[in-house]
Automatic annotation (TrEMBL), chains A, B, C:
Keywords: Nitrogen fixation, Nucleotide-binding, Phosphoprotein, Transcription, Transcription regulation. One of its GO terms (biological process) is regulation of nitrogen utilization. The modification O-UMP-tyrosine is found at Y51. SUPFAM superfamilies: GlnB-like. This is Nitrogen regulatory protein P-II. Signal peptide: none annotated. It comes from the Bacteria. The keyword Transport does not apply. GO terms for molecular function: ATP binding; enzyme regulator activity. The keyword Transcription regulation applies. Belongs to the P(II) protein family. Homotrimer.
Amino acid sequence: MKKIEAIIKPFKLDEVKEALQGVGLQGMTVVEAKGFGRQKGHTELYRGAEYVVDFLPKLKLELVVADEQVEAALEAIQTAAKTGKIGDGKIFVSTIEQAIRIRTGETGDTAL
Amino acid sequence: MKKIEAIIKPFKLDEVKEALQGVGLQGMTVVEAKGFGRQKGHTELYRGAEYVVDFLPKLKLELVVADEQVEAALEAIQTAAKTGKIGDGKIFVSTIEQAIRIRTGETGDTAL
Amino acid sequence: MKKIEAIIKPFKLDEVKEALQGVGLQGMTVVEAKGFGRQKGHTELYRGAEYVVDFLPKLKLELVVADEQVEAALEAIQTAAKTGKIGDGKIFVSTIEQAIRIRTGETGDTAL
Ligand SMILES: Nc1ncnc2c1ncn2[C@@H]1O[C@H](COP(=O)(O)OP(=O)(O)OP(=O)(O)O)[C@@H](O)[C@H]1O
Ligand SMILES: Nc1ncnc2c1ncn2[C@@H]1O[C@H](COP(=O)(O)OP(=O)(O)OP(=O)(O)O)[C@@H](O)[C@H]1O
Ligand SMILES: Nc1ncnc2c1ncn2[C@@H]1O[C@H](COP(=O)(O)OP(=O)(O)OP(=O)(O)O)[C@@H](O)[C@H]1O
Ligand SMILES: [Mg+2]
Ligand SMILES: [Mg+2]
Ligand SMILES: [Mg+2]
């Protein structure tokens, strides 16, 4: 299993969620975050205004998926989260060794 | 060392914390999250009312523990977080390669 | 690539951010967290007052860096986040297998 973490622009959440559901992925945890980007003092558009950025509001999505679903998930997130403007965000992938569904005690892929 | 991430119902925090303390684990970081579950449009109970869920408030607990404590921690969380109703949450386990306690510079298990 | 997670005292964010920029690291995601420490009922200073701690407000910093930058990042965080008083926080390191910069599709170290 892999954990996919995606830091996206907040207004993109619905599109990303729908893209993920389109490839059969519903389980997801979302956390509000402050993002500090690569260019110190670069500008980003936020609600129509340009900001010289110290930090910007971002959402961090976390989803754990079976190995076979990683590519579809990455593709879905990338396509849906992209505006082509700076600040579109990042995706990080790491390994999850164990997953447990608390209600049933199921483990592994069937717990996702 | 392992990182245990548990997404739980918020009202279960105290019980889970006490269960973890019962097996000797006090260090923990908790983040507020929005949870999107497996069933699109399923209902969950939240504060006594039934919701057709888009998302639900959840807490994400993160605790890094020594390898020997993983099983006890998982058992404690699972037992304490369980209501038997849908939405009880998930637990994910991954590897942590290095830990540092900032005040002392200690590393590894003794830093936890 | 490695993910560095640092749980720090909130008022230390600016110092830590500047220390990281000093070693060439600007990309970072910050999440507000509640911290539960090692000693049940120990006291910490928060805004000048002593608290018997159940939990304390912390910030969790997450930054993904190239392998060659891990040591410099850890050193920067540790030095900048340290007050010498209890509650200075922890740093955890784990492996990231894939990184994608959404706007450009770049992957790996060049995506960071
Ligand atoms: N190395 C990193 N580690 C952790 N989070 C990061 C890292 N780099 C960026 N982020 C997070 O991703 C968000 C968006 O980054 P951003 O898309 O601006 O990256 P970028 O490399 O500057 O790309 P762009 O040129 O398209 O703006 C940041 O605000 C931050 O939250
Ligand atoms: N694959 C996943 N990746 C990341 N987070 C997830 C995943 N699946 C669920 N979650 C998180 O866990 C929370 C609780 O999930 P939930 O317990 O409803 O899972 P479930 O499989 O639908 O089980 P149940 O049938 O008992 O409801 C979700 O709201 C979400 O925050
Ligand atoms: N094992 C752990 N797993 C996850 N988070 C932890 C763990 N231990 C501590 N933390 C987080 O780090 C924060 C700061 O911990 P703290 O610095 O108080 O650790 P400590 O071992 O008690 O060190 P000190 O004696 O200097 O206070 C906690 O409030 C919590 O958010
Ligand atoms: Mg940027
Ligand atoms: Mg559910
Ligand atoms: Mg402490």
